[in-house]
Design goal:
Elements: H1 3-52, H2 57-73, H3 75-92, H4 99-127, H5 133-143, H6 151-154, H7 169-176
Helix pairs in contact: 2-4, 3-4
């Protein structure tokens, strides 16, 4: 083997090794991000597993079909809500900004989402009679739990929430300190 061929083989080997190292680092970053985003459903999966560990495969399949049919019952409303939110986003990006129209579209989207959630909950509640008591208990705890998405904004540092607009601004300023 000549020196020239040896040099080319080393260059090709070096390029391939650098590519493999970069691919491994990239895969690690992607995996880490996906696992971080996946952690909340894992908690739900554990609770579901604990609630259904003594059920048969047929019973779990029946619950799956029940959940699927319930989810499909609200699909039209969720599609409407997504469309309304897209319209609100498009309108918000335009000048002049029409706050009233964006707020109206946002309210309509929220209403459609609530309609979908209501249909899903009602479908599940009406069909829970076919489930054993343990699965009914789990589903009812899951369905009827309070949202709590905005609790961190409402009670921060053991202080009452700050009133925004419509009130005395000096009182709101003193509360926020």
């Amino acid at each position: 083997m000549t020196d020239r061929r040896l040099k080319w083989a080393l260059v090709i080997s070096l390029v391939l090794n650098l590519f493999l190292i970069a691919a491994g680092i990239g895969a690690g970053i992607v995996f880490k991000r996906h696992m971080r985003d996946f952690q909340r459903p894992l908690a739900m999966s554990k609770a579901w597993h604990d609630a259904s560990k003594n059920t048969t495969k047929e019973e779990r399949h029946h619950i799956y079909l029940l959940l699927k049919s319930a989810a499909l019952s609200g699909e039209a409303d969720m599609t409407k809500a997504r469309s309304l939110r897209a319209q609100a986003n498009d309108l918000a990006a335009k000048d002049p900004f029409d706050a009233a129209q964006v707020a109206m579209l946002s309210e309509q989207a929220r209403s459609a989402e609530n309609d979908a959630r209501g249909k899903i909950e009602n479908t599940l509640i009406l069909n829970m009679k076919e489930l054993p008591a343990r699965e009914r208990s789990f589903l009812s705890k899951t369905l009827l739990r309070p949202s709590g998405r905005f609790d961190r904004f409402i009670e921060k540092d053991d202080k009452p929430p700050v009133q925004v607009g419509g009130g005395d601004m000096s009182a709101a300023a003193s509360v926020s300190r």
